[in-house]
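User: I'm curious whether this sequence folds into something compact or stays loose and floppy. Could you predict its structure so I can see for myself?
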Amino acid sequence: MLIVDGLSVDYGAIRAVREVSFRVPDGAIVALIGANGAGKSSSMNALSGLVARKGAITFDGADIGSLETDAIVRRGVIQVAQGRQLFPEMSVRDNLEMGAYLRSNAQRRATLEALMARFPFLQERAAQRCGTLSGGEQQLVAIARALMGAPRLLLLDEPTLGLAPLIVKRIGKVIRDLHAQGLSILIAEQNAAFACSLAESVIVLENGRVALSGTPAELSANDDMRRSYLGV
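Assistant: Here's the prediction. I'll summarize afterward.
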């Protein structure tokens, strides 16, 4: 579904991503892992058209590497940004509806009803300001807001950042459920154990480059991988 070849991102004289290439098959979960500053978020933002980038990005057979963010979203590539990026003074409902700004009113209403039926928490807190929610609750709202846009490929940038282990487990269940419904997912994570528990293939970034790649089983057999990222 997604083919990335030679992706590079520069911030002035600093090259944050260096000739990165990977694939996300249709219906798969793929993870980008690495330490802070490895190039994960820059890669995700490049895929969404949020930063200038070089290289080829192909989604469902079409070149999206030169498209603006709104055109990429229209194609079905939708990102949940690091830090959630909700509107804190707006209600849960209003934040969710913002995720469907490119869709018709009928599509927005139908998707909102479906999500609130699926996640009762959203219905219970619909009128509550997002800024008063816990970090875990905000992450769930951010994922639901992305789903309002009817993604074909969901980009999750650091979905467990700053969350307690119990909430991380809940986020993992949500991701597994979405995957079971056929959604393709690309995750960028520092939490390698979490990412490896979900993904079918893993790309390890170091200093903006691909250092390792393979299945979770293959990478767990690598001594450097175990010591550096899995803590074993």
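Summary: The beta strands are 2-11, 14-24, 29-33, 54-59, 62-63, 77-80, 153-157, 184-189, 201-206, 209-214. The chain has a mean pLDDT of 93.
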